[in-house]
Amino acid sequence: MNDTRPARTASLSRLAAGLVALAAVALPALAQAQDEPERKALKVCQDPNNLPFSNVAAEGIENRLADLFGKAMGLPVQYYSFPARLAFIRNTLRYKLPGEDFRCDIVMGVPVGFDQVSVTKPYYRSTYAMVYAQGRGLDDVKSVQDFLALPPERRQKVRIGLYDRTPAAAWLNKHGLVDQGVPYQMMSPDPAQYPGELLEKELSAGKVDVAIVWGPIAGFFAKRVAEPRLTVLPMQSEPGVRFDFEMAMGVRHGEREWKQQVEKVIETQRAEITAILRDFRVPLVAEGGTLLP
């Protein structure tokens, strides 16, 4: 099976969607034990412009989760912001000058299997989604299978926007749709770029007819974009293409007690976590990839 993972990131997007896309090629991380300090704050590593996951105005999914975790732990929430690029973990979670504290202690969204951090137990599983603008000739498409069943002469006219290094590319290749793909760069060097641009700007403006993005991005911007209205069709994994991934949190390797503390909150606050995800319209899927109601 093709296991192309969603770079909050971390694209899954740059951090979640981006991290998800890059998890398969992450560099090995050291696992040495470390002395664990007393936590006086929940120090969160975040991308400052990464909606729907995080931003400096604390409007993202992970900002809401950080508030929840801070309250559960009895700790004030502090952020260290750094644009999510290939060196995000090195410049945030791992960065420490002699005699100083680490810049931050937790990344709120990383894909399971991302070995640059010590990954907690997962707190949700989502999937990629196909998104189209209503009123532009695709309103009769109610599922991904409906799209694939369109007459060839109609389907072949559809321009499909996708981020590079995501499962969407493998899916287009499998279904003979490569020529219709319009690729966009996931890890742009432009810090002003954010994961939802493909929907909020390109799709909305009619530059593409369909977009395939990580589910949390799809759900958030379908809610946020008022005109045109966007329809979200979650995609199921299929032979050769994996679309659904588990997301967890990341701490430094060797900080076992801190990881256990974070995992305890994941367990005790699962209902509240799920409520936050649903409020952001994140498509949630079960273990086998079945979409949850």
Automatic annotation (TrEMBL):
Stretch forming the signal peptide: 1-31
Keywords: Signal
Gene3D superfamilies assigned to the protein according to its UniProt record, in alphabetical order: Periplasmic binding protein-like II (3.40.190.10)
All residue ranges annotated as the Solute-binding protein family 3/N-terminal domain in the record: 41-283
InterPro entries: Quinoprotein_dehydrogenase, Solute-binding_3/MltF_N
Keyword Signal attached: yes
Superkingdom: Bacteria
Protein name per its UniProtKB record: Amino acid ABC transporter substrate-binding protein (PAAT family)
